Amino acid sequence: MIDDIRLDGSEPLQQQLYQQLAARIIDRRYPAGSRLPSSRQLALDMRISRNTVNAVYDQLKAEGFLQSRAGRGVFVHQNIHSGELQHGKRPLLQPEASASLPPIPELKGNRYDAAGDVSLAFQPGLPDLDAFPIRSWNRILHHQESRKILRGYDSTQGYPPLRRAIAQYLCSARGVRCQEHQVIITNGAQQALSLIMDVLLEPGDRVFSENPGYRGARYALASRGNPVTPVPLKEQVLDVDALPALGAAKLLFCTPTHQYPMGGILDISQRMALLRWAQGNQTWIIEDDYDSEFHFYNKPFVALQGMFENTPVLYVGSFSKTLLPALRVGYLVVPEPLVEHFVLAKQASGGESPLLIQATIAEFIETGHFTRHLRRMRQLYRDKWQHFQSRIAEELGGLVTPVAESAGMHVVLEGDFNDVELSSWLRTRGFGSTPLSSHFFGNGSRTGLIMGFASASEQEIEACINLLKQRLESGTTTG
Ligand SMILES: Cc1ncc(COP(=O)(O)O)c(C=O)c1O
């Protein structure tokens, strides 16, 4: 049976014998239940010590390859093929195994996203990476790196100085009413959304979401299999008047201060109506305040969360746009009675956020760098926005219709073309964008491109506009 085993001087004998025996059992060359020579016999045949053979047999027994039967010898384990998935070369997930998994929620844009997460100019949501004050950041990072206290574990809820800095910032800049113990640090806004689902959703609960809306939110909202109902927009903002006809919901996701992607801003009377509706229907509002720092001419509206005491609002924010997406740090502000639930949910789904990064952000805020950086970026993005708008008007008039609000980091160019195809084509030319149609769900959709101008230089704006002009004029992407 073991005539085909060859040992040489390349590796320790014990290791070679182990590997060759295991490989033959996995390949079924030594079938389940077949008998192996005694250790004495094998040692003689292979001209190696009996201790070496015994050690290999013991290991193979411990791993379930072999079994001893009292008084009869050593055999290939009877159940070896049920253990095959652990040791074998077959793919771990057989195609038919996925049939027993719950279905992936049907969402437009899923496949598109697989290739979409790259840092290309015009990628929506991407800040100007070159404008990041990397020297000051590195200095602070280096300072924090040397602190022993940051090398171990810390609080799941988040590094206290960072929670304190965020609470102060949100109170003064966004009118959020919170104490630091209501702030939970998350791995990006995305984890904040996911935690909300963990804590608040029960099977069958209905969830409402703006339509069109942020796809990252919809992925989270739909992830537990709850029905997600689209709420239409009116004049580029959530149509608050449409809500009463839609019935009850446990959660409503919205971007009141800069609707994503259409850019509208919910005015004060609509905000009041929305809060009234939520209070009357026992609905939690998820307020995604993802880019309010970049309102160019007016101070942004105070956050919904802070309009009154005890609003039914879960406030979500992120450093992805104000600092860098790669940091993966966001935050959630929740009413006091919910804090513990959220911390437990976070503990269960990944635990703490990276401590060194949290400490670096905290010092970056405390020492005034954050405010300075935001001031500079607001000016920079305003200039880019103006330039982009005027080049669109000059070159793409009649081909696209810009849907522009004087805020944020992206512009939507609506038009009657195949937006999925155009966006993929632009990607092959080195420019990011997302198709507007992929942000719609339910019935009805419109086409266009969402262009994140914040990440684009003047040359890139020029090059991309020229490409779009040629492509749209050639009619290759008509809808
Ligand atoms: C509407 C909206 N919310 C939130 C985020 C931030 O997400 P994260 O913090 O997970 O990077 C983005 C990023 O693109 C966004 O567009």
Could you provide a short overview of the structure?
This protein is α/β, with parallel strands linked by helices and 479 residues long.
Would you mind describing this structure in some detail?
The protein has an eight-stranded mixed beta sheet with strand order 4-11-10-9-8-5-6-7, with helices on both faces. A four-stranded antiparallel beta sheet has the order 12-13-15-14, covered by helices on one side. A three-stranded antiparallel beta sheet has the order 1-3-2. The protein has helices at 13-26, 39-46, 50-62, 84-87, 110-114, 134-145, 160-174, 188-200, 215-222, 268-281, 339-348, 355-366, 369-396, 419-428, 458-474; strands at 35-36, 66-69, 73-76, 183-186, 207-211, 228-234, 237-238, 251-254, 284-288, 313-318, 330-333, 401-403, 411-414, 434-435, 448-451. It contains 15 helices and 15 strands. Helix 6 (134-145) crosses helix 12 (355-366) and helix 8 (188-200) packs across helix 11 (339-348). By secondary structure, it is an alpha/beta fold. A hairpin with a 7-residue loop joins strand 12 (401-403) and strand 13. The structure holds pyridoxal-5'-phosphate. Residues 125, 188-190, 214, 216, 255, 260, 288, 290, 318, 320, 325, 330 line the site of pyridoxal-5'-phosphate.
What tags apply to this protein structure?
single chain, 479 residues, alpha/beta, Arc Repressor Mutant, subunit A, Aspartate Aminotransferase, domain 2, Aspartate Aminotransferase, domain 1, 3 domains, 4-stranded antiparallel beta sheet, 15 strands, 38% helix, elongated, binds pyridoxal-5'-phosphate
